[in-house]
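Sequence and structure are kept together here, with a separate record for every protein. A complete record is shown below as an example:
=====
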Amino acid sequence: MNKQEWINQAICKIEADYQRSADTHLIKLELPWLREIDLYLKDESTHPTGSLKHRLARSLFLYALCNGWLDQNTPVIESSSGSTAVSEAYFARLLGLPFIAVVPRSTARKKIEQIEFFGGKAHFVERSCEIYAESRRLAKELGGHYMDQFTFAERATDWRGNNNIANSIFEQMKLERYPVPSWIVMSPGTGGTSATIGRYIRYQRHPTQLCVVDPENSVFHDYYKTANPDLTLEQGSRIEGIGRPRVEPSFIPGVIDQMRTIEDAASIATILWLEKRMGRKVGPRPEPISMVLCSLPARCRKTERLAHW
């Protein structure tokens, strides 16, 4: 089989897998004391891998295939905190390709087990800032392809099309009391999802605003305020998979309406409160709830209302 025939078959396998997969749920959070504010949580755990980065991994593989970067013998290497690597291991196995995830040694054991379950291998580094160079080194040594989610996330996903998370959100909201969200609130990992949602909102000319929240020990919020692309941190975020120690190429601040840094203690407290309220796991183990939607009546759509949820 020549390379083009193999690429054609690989794309068909990924598209067939997509057709077999249901969309992820938008869950309404019932809070009786918020009478004119509706909150929804986007639950990405219903993907086949249970990872919120499943859509991204699918897009990255299709992007690499269509660019001619993969063939039937190409090892795939990715730098990750775990979640993207889980889904990429799934797609690599689907295509019969070896997969290596370069991850910090502190990565949750559950994620390593999931990578291995889907046929991938974990290659450990001591600090999160080392994953990039080590991934490039491995790819060169093995003659493989470095998928590089942190660079290609914002361009691999078609933010105008109908296969992205933004389109899913707005389609699922159509029959709600306030069908167009006033705010979408999410946290950045690669920056690709916030880029997709922010671009989609503008392209569709929705009045929705995008708020991106950063954890402690992440440079994204400071970059948003200073526009300094050289910001770095030695220590990574405690909230695994969220926030970065450097400014990632896929993070696009121009599509964001507001940013905030949230203390880790407040994040954990909210996770525990939500788990009791919803009766299901949320947060980083793994990460089923990826974002919050807030819908208000039109007369209340003011930026300052975000502070009074």
